[in-house]
Design a protein that fits this description.
Length: 268
């Protein structure tokens, strides 16, 4: 749903510019200034001024049919340390996991109460799955999300519940008590499941990638069609890959929360 409010003094220029960038959807090839105004709730003149500057900076591009996101955004995205470091360490393990499970393999991280997919290795056996790199999903409706929520500080699942457990399919867990019981089971087994909760016909099994403090940095999953993928059987392989990735990150000196510890003064 796009906001309907018009320009207000409370919005900074930066916030307005970000709202314009956020207004683009994965299906857009080009969007007119008028449509961006409708989606953002900003005046058309404001959107035009922002678009001119964003184009100058390479964050937007002008086409005969309208505006589209600029290549400089992609370049900046590749510099995000969490995405780059995780992706580089995870790719060999993801490739092995795809080979073993014959499924689509996802790597996701938490952003607020949602998960963002930072790498996806597709499988020929399951073409057309709706997930995409950079895509977001509510954490309670996905296997990777539940794996991360289960191994996050208590305030994180509490905030997810407070934000509302909106259904993504008829099978999404929307009762707070049921979600908390499921997260407790994930903590016990180290494995989370999505049984058509993110979308009808799609299932996955996921496991958390833990830091040295036992908190989730990310999660890996194996995903496929409900009629073809035996998620119960795939669980140990996904869990093994996630544990291996956590150990690799720890060996590279990543401390709790996925950050590098600060060396002590005078240490070797």
């Amino acid at each position: 749903m796009f906001p309907t409010e018009r320009d207000t003094p409370a919005l900074s220029v930066l916030a307005r510019a970000v709202s314009v960038l956020d207004a683009f959807s994965p299906d857009d090839t080009a969007v007119t200034v008028s449509e961006l105004g409708r989606r953002t709730g900003l005046a058309k003149s404001t959107v035009h001024r922002l678009a001119v500057e964003l184009c100058r900076l390479g964050l937007l591009e002008q086409t005969p049919r309208g505006l589209r996101l600029g290549l400089h955004l992609f370049e900046l995205g590749q510099l995000v340390p969490r995405q780059r470091d995780l992706r580089e360490a995870a790719l060999p393990l993801m490739e092995d996991l795809r080979e073993v499970t014959r499924s689509t393999v996802h790597l996701a991280v938490r952003d607020g109460v949602e998960v963002v997919y930072i790498e996806i290795l597709g499988s020929k056996a399951y073409p057309g799955l709706p997930s995409r790199v950079g895509g977001r999903m509510p954490a309670h409706a996905t296997g990777v999300g539940k794996a991360i929520l289960a191994f996050s500080p208590p305030e994180v699942p509490a905030e997810r519940i407070k934000s509302g457990l909106a259904p993504c399919s008829p099978f999404t867990v929307v009762a707070p008590g049921a979600l908390l019981r499921e997260l407790e089971n994930v903590r016990r087994t180290g494995i989370a499941y999505d049984r058509e909760e993110s979308g009808v016909g799609t299932v996955c099994v996921a496991a958390p990638v833990l830091d040295t403090g036992g908190l989730a940095i990310a999660a890996l999953s194996a995903t496929g069609r409900s009629t073809q993928l035996d998620i119960e059987r795939m669980g140990p392989a996904v869990r093994t890959a996630a544990l291996a990735l956590g150990r690799q990150l720890a060996a590279k000196g990543r401390g709790p929360g996925g950050t590098r510890p600060v060396p002590r003064t005078g240490s070797a």
